[in-house]
């Protein structure tokens, strides 16, 4: 029987965090605590793409974002105060964490766990409701082909309408134009409502997308 999100929190996340509490300077236990906490997201994806849900959660919770970076070995990619406190994660020669670094990781995983526990509760309450289709926010750039006709480029998915419009504006400065739109539906069944145009910049050809 697959492990439920509650089981995962109780049997995997909480014991792993408690092990870190017992030895907060252990780099191994700190990493495992981040890894176990991060993977709560696997129980929350549902029909939604994991990459999009990660972006959303990182935007909502700085603690989850930090745990995500450590768990996925992307710690060095984002400088800032947290990186300064946890520099040992970027140092392959560091045998362990300094006391203040261990305390910082412990605080992060506990905050991320509380955030994800709240998401698990929200997810459980939604399961008792009728299934709702997801809304996807897509941005597509346009460029002329060899015949001078506009062709759509690689579509990019973002987490909300505001980011879609912002990305379309940015891409339009690099291409002939760009369009941002949303579609509501179910990827599993392939059933979608008509696209809703959110923003257009520069030269676009809607007919070329059909």
Helix-strand sequence: HHHHHHEEEHEEE
Number of H/I helices? 7
The computed structural class is alpha+beta
Rg computed from alpha carbons, rounded to a whole number of angstroms:
21 Å
Q: Please tell me the total number of domains.
A: 2
Low-pLDDT stretches are 76-85, 128-132
The percentage helix is 40-55%
Q: Which descriptor suits the 3D outline?
A: elongated
In round numbers, the mean pLDDT is 84
* Biggest sheet statistics: 6 strands, antiparallel
Strand content: 15-25%
Number of strands: 6
Instruction: State the end-to-end distance.
Output: 43 Å
Secondary structure layout plus pairing:
Elements: H1 5-22, H2 27-38, H3 50-60, H4 62-71, H5 81-85, H6 99-127, E1 134-144, E2 150-152, E3 156-158, H7 161-174, E4 177-186, E5 191-192, E6 196-202
Antiparallel strand pairs: 1-2, 1-3, 1-4, 4-5, 4-6
Helix pairs in contact: 1-2, 1-6, 2-4, 2-6, 3-4, 4-6
Describe this structure in words.
The longest helix is centred in the middle third of the chain and has 29 residues, at 99-127. The termini are far apart. The chain has helices at 5-22, 27-38, 50-60, 62-71, 81-85, 99-127, 161-174; strands at 134-144, 150-152, 156-158, 177-186, 191-192, 196-202. It contains 7 helices and 6 strands, in the order H-H-H-H-H-H-E-E-E-H-E-E-E. It is elongated, with a radius of gyration of 21 Å. Strands 1, 2, 3, 4, 5 and 6 form a 6-stranded antiparallel sheet that branches.
């Amino acid at each position: 029987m697959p492990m439920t999100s509650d089981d995962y929190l109780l049997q995997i996340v909480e014991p792993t965090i408690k092990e870190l509490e017992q030895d907060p300077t252990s780099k191994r236990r700190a990493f495992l605590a981040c890894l176990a906490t991060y993977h709560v997201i696997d129980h929350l994806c549902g029909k939604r793409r994991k990459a999009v849900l990660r972006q959303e959660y990182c935007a909502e919770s700085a603690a989850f974002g930090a745990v995500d970076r450590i768990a996925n070995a992307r710690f060095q990619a984002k400088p800032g105060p947290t990186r300064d406190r946890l520099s040992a994660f970027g140092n392959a020669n560091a045998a362990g964490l300094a006391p203040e670094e261990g305390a910082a990781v412990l605080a992060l995983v506990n905050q991320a766990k509380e955030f994800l526990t709240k998401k698990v509760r929200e997810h459980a309450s939604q399961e008792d409701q009728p299934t709702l289709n997801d809304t996807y926010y897509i941005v597509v750039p346009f460029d002329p082909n060899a015949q001078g006709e506009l062709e759509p480029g690689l579509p990019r998915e973002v987490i909300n309408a505001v980011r879609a419009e912002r990305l379309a504006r940015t891409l339009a400065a690099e291409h002939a134009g760009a369009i941002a739109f949303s579609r509501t539906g179910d990827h599993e069944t392939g059933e979608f409502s008509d696209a809703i145009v959110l923003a257009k910049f520069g030269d676009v050809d809607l007919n070329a997308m059909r």
